[in-house]
Amino acid sequence: MSQTVLRVSHANKTFRTFERKTTALNGVSFSVNAGETVALLGASGSGKSTLIRAICGLEVLDESSGNIHIGDEEIQASGKLSPNIRHIRSSVGVIFQQFNLVNQLDVITNVLVGLGSKKNIFQLLSRRFSSEEKALALDALEKVGMVDYAYQRASTLSGGQQQRVAIARALVKGSKLLLADEPVASLDPESARKVMELMVNLTKQFGLTLITSLHQVHIAKKCCDRTIALNKG
Fold this sequence. Notes:
alpha/beta; five-stranded antiparallel β-sheet
């Protein structure tokens, strides 16, 4: 029997302003097994990004919610994050639509930032990384076909290349679960195809689990084992 990597139970999220209340997630429940590639499908505003942020603990759910487990560890329950959130989050790689690279830094340093959960702020700011850590970063860059750009500034890369660096940053943590929030939305069709194929191939090659939000049905059908559709939360 396959191991369950993720369990989401009755996830609710409401955003409130002075003028209105918006339901972003409404009783969402599902589980994902090890090695699966799962697409979250839905239009803008359907709750995909909120769900991904909740899974990695960047969004706190409503008190009326159930819980979210990554493996055997509870990341949040009833509107409260786990006291071990930093440790749990270190086992999850997150890839965002906007890449979130520091343009002034070279590629390898951007990848090494992925080790942030294992470093204090002084070590990060002073770029104190061991030779072993740099070797891990170079290995991750090789996996995504970007090792030749390791000492090039991130600002000189194309969108597709920057997303590959962002994937390497997620891989360097040694994560078994990858969360990708609209990873190809900012790319041209050809770059989008290559980046999605790369992520899926890495998932299969290294026994990872991938959950990605998309709004392109054809990409989800081609690249993912199954889909979870969201509509108004």
